[in-house]
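In this section we walk through a basic example: taking a raw amino acid sequence and producing a predicted 3D structure, encoded as discrete structure tokens. The instruction is simple. Fold the sequence below.
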Amino acid sequence: MNMAANNGNARELVEELLAAYVSAIDDGDLERWPEFFTEDCVYRILPRENDSLNLPLAVMSCNSRAALADRIAAYRKANLFAPHAYRHLLGPVRIRDEGRHEVAARTNYAVFRTALDPIDYGTSEVFSVGEYRDRVVVVDGLARFREKSVVVDTCKIHTLLATPL
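The resulting token sequence is shown next.
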């Protein structure tokens, strides 16, 4: 698909991908999470300060769909944490660059975390706020993230960062 020729569709394509992406996370369907990426993708979470100073150190970094799948396997089998649910709120998608085969977009996000354990059940807090910086391509007719950088404004994470943002 020629993304540059589909000017109006690029935003729609990115919006639909983001909506499906956050729905999978919010619904707890994390095994689907790697499917939103290309095989040779980049996913990273980095603090805003590191990003502004061009420091490459990330809180989390994966460089392939297989690494993302491993992350979810560890999440399901090895990590111990109190049960919780996420809810993402997304700002408008801003197309930053649109080439023949790729779209670069930025989207503000906020993630709320709600406790599901008996002690704090239903207690919600702002868990993370920041910006998605995405590079989206079309593979076999489907939009996929080639690169997703999650630049977090809230770099003080109160609990284990186990679930993807």
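Looking at the output, two observations stand out. The longest strand covers residues 124-139. Strands lie at 37-47, 60-62, 84-90, 94-98, 103-115, 124-139, 142-152. In the next section we compare this with other chains.
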